[in-house]
Amino acid sequence: MLKLMYITNRPDIAQIAESAGVDRIFVDMEFIGKDARQKGLDTVKCHHTVDDVRAVRNAVASAQVLVRVNPIHDALPDYFSSEDEINAVIEAGADIVMLPYFRTAGEVSRFLGIVNGRAKTMLLLETPEAVENLDEILALPGIDEIHIGLNDLAIGYGRKFMFELLADGTVEQLCFRLRKRGIPFGFGGIASIGKGLLPSEYIIKEHYRLGSGCVILSRSFCDVAKLHHIGMINATFIRGVREIRDLERQCEKHSSFFYENEKELIRLVDNICKGSEG
User: Fold this and answer.
1) Distance from C-alpha of 154 to C-alpha of 165, rounded to nearest angstrom
2) Which has the closest alpha carbon to 18: 74, 59, 54?
3) How far apart are the first and last CA of the chain?
4) What angle do CA 241, 202, 8 make, to 5 degrees?
5) What confidence tens digit (pLDDT) does each residue in 164-176 have?
6) How does pLDDT run across 139-196, given as a tens digit for each residue?
7) Antiparallel, parallel or unpaired: β 185-190 and 120-125
8) Residue whose C-alpha is closest to residue 1's, from 266, 270, 186
9) CA distance 117 to 19
10) Are the beta carbons of 100 and 68 closer than 8 angstroms?
11) SS3 letters for the chain?
12) Cα–Cα distance, 153 to 50 (Å, whole number)
C-alpha cells in the first residue's frame, strides 16, 4: 500500500488523518524562494514552524512526522541557517526530514551531514539541475527516500501542466533510475478518487505500475479551510482513505489494466493541455 502523506500543522487534523489511516503527517516549513519560483500558481505555501513540528509530534501516536525544511541556506537576517533549522526540527521530533529544491550533490551532501543519521532523510527531486546531477547525488550515502516533486519540476521544464511529466515518460525514467539504486520513492499528489483535473485513480494506477511507495494527499483531498465542521473533516478523511485503499487492492490483484490506464492517462493529459491553450 502507498504511504499516504497529508500536510497540516493542526494537531486536531493530524489526529483525524492518523485515525483514518494516513501514514505521515507533513509539516511544511519551506518558504524561502517559493513564491518567486512558483510564479503566482495556486500551490500550497504553509510556512509552518518548529513549534508546529513539536505540537504535531505530541498529537500523533503511530503516524510518522515528516518535515520539509527550506533549501540549503546560510543564516538570514530574520531566519536561522540550514544547520540550526534542521537541528531544531529533529529536536522537536521529526521522524523524516525532507530537503526541497536542491540542484547539486554538494547541497545534498551538506544536508545529509547535518542530519547525520538522527532522522530519516527524504530528497524532494524537483529541479532539472538535480535530474542532470542525479547519478552523483545517488552515489551519496545516507539517502533514505526520494520524492519526485511534479509542480516545480514541471515549471523547470517549461510544462503547462504538472502531469505532462507523467504522460511524457519523464517520471517513468526517473523511477527506473531510482529502482535500479534500490531507493524507495514516490511522486506528486492526489485528490480524492474521481476528483482532480486528472482524476486520481489514473495517477494511483501509475504509482503501482512504476513501483512508487508514497504519495501526498493534496489540499483538495480535504481542504480544511473550506470545511469548518470537524465531523465533516473526519468523514472526508475516512471516506477518502477507504476509497484509495479499495482501489489499491484492485491494483495489487489486476496488474493487466496498467497498460490501458497508461494510454488513457496520456490521452487525458493531452486533452487537458490542449484545453489550456484555448
Assistant:
1) 7
2) 59
3) 39
4) 40
5) 999 999 999 999 9
6) 999 999 999 999 999 999 999 999 999 999 999 999 999 999 999 999 999 999 999 9
7) unpaired
8) 186
9) 29
10) yes
11) CCEEEEECCCHHHHHHHHHHCCCEEEEECCCCCHHHHCCCCCCCCCCCCHHHHHHHHHHCCCCEEEEECCCCCCCECCECCHHHHHHHHHHCCCCEEEECCCCCHHHHHHHHHHHCCCCEEEEEECCHHHHHCHHHHHCCCCCCEEEECHHHHHHHCCCCCCCHHHHCCHHHHHHHHHHHHCCCEEEEEECCCCCCCCCHHHHHHHHHHHCCCEEEECHHHCCCCCCCCHHHHHHHHHHHHHHHHHHHHHHHHCHHHHHHHHHHHHHHHHHHHHHHHC
12) 27
Q: Note the pLDDT tens digit of each residue in 87-105.
A: 999 999 999 999 999 999 9
Contact 70, 82 (CB under 8 A): yes
As beta bridge partners, residue 66 has 26, 96
Q: What is the pTM of this model?
A: 0.93
Alpha-carbon dihedral sign for residues 21, 22, 23, 27: negative
Can you identify the CATH homologous superfamily of domain 3-277? Answer: Phosphoenolpyruvate-binding domains (3.20.20.60)
C-alpha cell at position 45: 505555501
User: Cell 487492492 appears where?
Assistant: 249
pLDDT at 38: 58
Residue 14's contacts (CB-CB under 8 Å, 6 or more residues apart) are: 8, 25, 56, 59, 60, 63
